Amino acid sequence: MEDGDMELYDLRVVVDRIEGRSVCGMEVGDWFELERSAHLRLPDGKHFCVYALAAVLPFLAAKQRDLAEGDWLARDSLFCCPDPEERLVMRVERTRRRRMNSANLT
């Protein structure tokens, strides 16, 4: 582990399922990663719909941290895109626990 005074999880957001039609061109299994607190990474040549991203984005900072036992966000990992025709469901996975220096973050 790296030196630091706090720990955060790196996350992977994966398209778990699409219950309607894929309006944005995404497919089951498409993903992005959030690493080192704020670094967003996509596979080369792939995209992620900004509306799906906007739906999950408010929850990512909390999912990066340890949460109290019984907190609903500690149990739940599925989030939905707001497009009613698409019904795209994303799964947030913790991929790595990383020690970081809070003085290096804003």
Helix content: 10-25%
Give the CA-based shape. Answer: globular
**Main β-sheet, in a few words?**
5 strands, antiparallel
Mean pLDDT comes to 93
Give the DSSP E fraction (strand runs of 2 or more residues).
25-35%
Number of helices: 2
Number of strands: 5
Low-confidence stretches: none
Order the strands across the largest sheet as they lie in space: 3-2-1-5-4
Order of helices and strands: EEEHHEE
Query: N-to-C terminal Cα separation, in Å?
Result: 21 Å
* Rg value: 15 Å
Query: What is the structural class?
Result: alpha+beta
Question: What attributes characterize this protein structure?
Answer:
106 residues; alpha+beta; five-stranded antiparallel beta sheet; 2 helices; 5 strands; 17% helix; globular
Question: Your description of this structure?
Answer:
The chain has helices spanning 50-63, 72-75; strands spanning 6-18, 31-35, 39-41, 78-80, 88-100. The two termini are 21 Å apart. 17% of the residues lie in helices and 35% in strands. It is globular, with a radius of gyration of 15 Å. With 106 residues, the protein is of the alpha+beta class. The protein contains two helices and five strands. Strands 3-2-1-5-4 form a five-stranded antiparallel beta sheet.
